[in-house]
Write a structure and sequence with these properties.
By secondary structure, the chain is α+β, with helices and mostly antiparallel strands. It has 7 helices and 10 strands.
Length: 269
């Protein structure tokens, strides 16, 4: 069974000078929120919509205004509205007379790929950034991977800025080069581009032959890099699409110890 996973990767919603104190939901509200509609027999697309509905119900109307919920409609010829590029939902947190707006993008996948969930292409990340700049709403990405279960389970382990994800979650960077196209000039160019993005992440050269075989070479520690969209654009702009590959870390962060757990771990009687 593939475990359910909720990933919140977004810009941290900073409520400057405000102390948040939200009331606990009533028993009826809890029962309503924790009774998702069955998804057995639905297509993957229908399950994605069901997940969106489940996410929408996580924002009780007593504290949140659901301002917009986009439908992502498209014609058979691929025609769609520009608004489809924006996040799925626009929500306002309401605290008395104050409002704190943010947006939510929902991503549902039937299964993981090599222990990871890819939720966006680089151009989609740029769309989120453009949306944030245009509207001032931070964007949170909520994702679920579930092959069998109807009820999503939330395990919020860590929250950090979306732009930090490549640096925080990449174990290795692979630079894929075709042997037939290699030359001293191209290798020098690769060294220049890599040297412009120094960091702590190991870099590997993936040397690809025409028959599909490949050999991996770990580069000297002097050429360790900082994974980023800028590095991906630079390498793929020089060596073609797919030249940059980030091997992601599928491990969940360690759960921080609670205060009562720390207190009980002492040697006292």
């Amino acid at each position: 069974m593939v475990p359910n996973l909720l990933m919140a990767l977004g810009l941290v919603l900073i409520l400057a000078g405000a102390f948040l104190k939200l009331r606990s939901p009533t028993a009826a509200e809890v029962a309503a929120m924790e009774a998702p509609a069955p998804t057995s027999g639905l297509s993957d697309e229908e399950k994605g919509y069901a997940f969106e509905r489940w996410v929408a119900d996580r924002f009780p109307k007593q504290s949140f205004d659901l301002k917009h919920w986009r439908s992502d409609k498209m014609t058979p010829n691929g025609r769609y509205a520009e608004s489809n590029k924006d996040p799925d939902m626009e929500v306002d947190l309401v605290l008395g007379t104050k409002r704190y707006p943010f947006a939510v993008e929902c991503k549902w996948r039937a299964r993981m790929n090599d222990g990871t969930m890819k939720f966006a292409e680089p151009y989609q990340i740029e769309n989120y950034k453009a949306y944030m700049k245009r509207t001032g709403r931070p964007v949170f990405v909520v994702g679920e991977v579930s092959a069998t279960e109807d009820r999503p389970k939330i395990f919020l382990q860590e929250l950090f800025p979306l732009e930090d994800a490549p640096r925080r979650l990449t174990l290795q960077v692979h630079l894929r080069l075709r042997l037939a196209e290699l030359s001293p000039d191209r290798l020098r160019r690769a060294r220049e581009l890599v040297g412009a993005h120094p960091g702590d992440c190991p870099l590997f050269l993936c040397l690809q032959r025409a028959d599909g075989a490949a050999a991996f070479v770990e580069v000297n520690d002097r050429y360790r890099v900082q994974p980023s969209l800028d590095l991906q654009r630079a390498l793929e702009g020089e060596f073609g699409a797919g030249a940059y590959f980030a091997k992601a870390d599928p491990a969940l962060p360690e759960r921080p110890r609670r205060r009562w757990e720390q207190a009980s771990s002492g040697d006292g009687g």
